[in-house]
Specification:
By secondary structure, the chain is mainly alpha-helical. The chain has one domain. Helix content is 53%, strand content 6%. A two-stranded parallel ribbon has the order 1-2. The mean pLDDT is 81.
């Protein structure tokens, strides 16, 4: 997977977002960046941006609408 800025995953804002939206499930934590890649490709891009990961969070089963 190609992230625009891979080091950003370690930033508190993004790490907290991934943890909160994965609902504490390890599999979901891994799915978010992977599904973010699918969202990016759907928009005609190869590199994943944080906006793609946000959009992917809404695709998780049982994800609360926020």
């Amino acid at each position: 997977m190609q992230l625009i800025e891979p080091d950003r995953l370690a930033e508190p804002e993004i790490a907290e977002f991934l943890w909160r939206h994965s609902l504490g499930v390890t599999g979901n934590f891994k799915r978010l960046p992977h599904w973010g890649q699918k969202v990016a490709r759907r928009h005609g891009r190869e590199c994943v941006e944080f906006a793609d990961i946000r959009e992917a969070a809404g695709l998780l089963p049982g994800h609360p609408a926020r």
